[in-house]
């Protein structure tokens, strides 16, 4: 089954989307739209100044992939829905706030459309390997997990300016822009979240939002997880943005460990030996090629291969948890979450 796709956006991260669709078998990227049309044309694909112009010129594709900032999401998704597109992928952070996200989700559902959030960290191969090991029972009954985020890109007055300068002006940064990846991934790995507690702080005065903090997740049945993020510090890795840190997952039968090179290790309970479950990642693509993996997943779903992950309705839980995290940090109190 051959499919067509179009991308809205021609910025830094949108380039990963263009490359993913172009590399996919049986999917044709028919165009890129961007408010600066020269940037759209510079991608090497047919370029247009808007989605409307793209639809008028080359038709409505099977998939519209929105790879632009949150403030553009509502208009872009509505434009695609009005044109008759029934599978739309939308980048995170999803919309400007949770009420916008709820409204847009309801509008897509009313038309029977698939609205998918491009939350790609769960598609990184090391997390797939960790999940497979847990599902096999390699560490017995799960007790706890943690991730120490240490990309080392947040120091000094020029922090983020070379790659994503808008990071400096975001009033909500660490959680809204970055830790949301692990909110989704922890929920996928460890199960629904019942409560959160957070202590967030701003370390670099050159930015507007928080850039460090701890988040404790209560998954119920005795399972806890911790996100420990600090964008100013680094970890032992040649490429600090590959995994952006290190993880450890512990159970009654052993411990799983993710290293900064993308390798996954298992140590059995009371053993001194670690066994490699996944070799270091050497593919050279962002996040272990997670953008391609997510886009391919959506294409496979449209061909009838498996259930769809990250539909917008399910992703609203992630946004609700984000709000609870900020409230917890502001009040100093644990916040209950509807799982």
Can you describe what's shown?
The protein has helices spanning 14-23, 37-41, 51-58, 73-83, 98-110, 125-136, 174-190, 290-302, 312-331; strands at residues 3-8, 27-33, 47-48, 63-66, 87-91, 114-118, 142-149, 195-201, 212-220, 223-230, 245-251, 254-258, 264-268, 274-278, 335-336. Helix 5 (98-110) runs antiparallel to helix 9 and helix 7 crosses helix 9. A hairpin with a 5-residue loop joins strand 12 (254-258) and strand 13. The strands form two sheets. A nine-stranded mixed β-sheet has the order 14-13-12-11-7-10-9-8-15. The protein has 339 residues and is α/β, with parallel strands linked by helices. The model has no long low-confidence stretch (mean pLDDT 97).
Q: What distinguishing features does this structure have?
A:
339 residues; alpha/beta; 9-stranded mixed sheet; 6-stranded parallel sheet; 32% helix; globular
Describe the structure in brief.
Helices cover 32% and strands 25% of the residues. By secondary structure, the chain is of the alpha/beta class. The longest helix has 20 residues, at 312-331.
How would you summarize the topology of this molecule?
Elements: E1 3-8, H1 14-23, E2 27-33, H2 37-41, E3 47-48, H3 51-58, E4 63-66, H4 73-83, E5 87-91, H5 98-110, E6 114-118, H6 125-136, E7 142-149, H7 174-190, E8 195-201, E9 212-220, E10 223-230, E11 245-251, E12 254-258, E13 264-268, E14 274-278, H8 290-302, H9 312-331, E15 335-336
Parallel strand pairs: 1-2, 1-4, 2-3, 4-5, 5-6, 7-10
Antiparallel strand pairs: 7-11, 8-9, 8-15, 9-10, 11-12, 12-13, 13-14
Helix pairs in contact: 1-8, 4-5, 5-9, 7-9
């Amino acid at each position: 089954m051959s499919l067509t796709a179009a991308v809205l956006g021609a910025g830094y991260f949108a380039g990963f989307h263009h490359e993913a669709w172009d590399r996919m078998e049986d999917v044709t990227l028919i165009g890129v739209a961007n408010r600066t049309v020269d940037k759209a044309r510079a991608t090497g694909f047919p370029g247009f100044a808007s989605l409307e112009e793209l639809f008028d010129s080359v038709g409505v594709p099977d998939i519209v992939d929105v790879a632009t900032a949150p403030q553009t999401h509502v208009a872009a998704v509505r434009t695609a829905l009005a044109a008759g597109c029934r599978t739309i992928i939308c980048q995170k952070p999803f919309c400007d706030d949770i009420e916008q996200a709820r409204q847009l989700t309801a509008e897509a559902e009313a038309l029977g459309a698939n609205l998918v959030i491009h939350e790609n960290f769960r598609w990184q191969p090391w997390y797939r390997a960790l999940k497979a090991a847990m599902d096999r029972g390699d560490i017995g009954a799960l007790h706890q997990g943690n991730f120490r985020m240490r990309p080392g890109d947040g120091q000094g007055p020029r922090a983020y300016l070379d790659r994503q300068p808008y990071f400096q002006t975001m009033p909500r940064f660490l959680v809204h822009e970055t830790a949301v990846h692990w909110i989704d991934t922890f929920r996928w790995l460890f199960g629904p979240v019942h409560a959160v507690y957070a202590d967030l702080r701003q370390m670099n005065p050159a930015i507007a939002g928080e850039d460090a903090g701890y988040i404790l997740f209560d998954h119920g049945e005795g399972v806890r997880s911790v996100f420990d993020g600090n964008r100013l510090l680094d970890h032992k890795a040649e490429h600090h943005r590959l995994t952006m840190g290190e993880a450890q997952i512990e159970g009654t039968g052993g411990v799983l460990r993710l290293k900064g090179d993308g390798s996954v290790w298992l140590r059995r309970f009371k053993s001194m030996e670690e066994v490699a479950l996944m070799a270091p990642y050497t593919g050279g693509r962002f996040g272990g090629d997670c953008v391609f993996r997510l886009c391919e997943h959506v294409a496979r779903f449209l061909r009838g291969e498996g259930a769809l992950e990250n539909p917008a309705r399910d992703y609203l839980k992630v946004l609700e948890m984000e709000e609870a995290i900020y409230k917890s940090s502001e009040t100093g109190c644990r916040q209950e979450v509807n799982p």
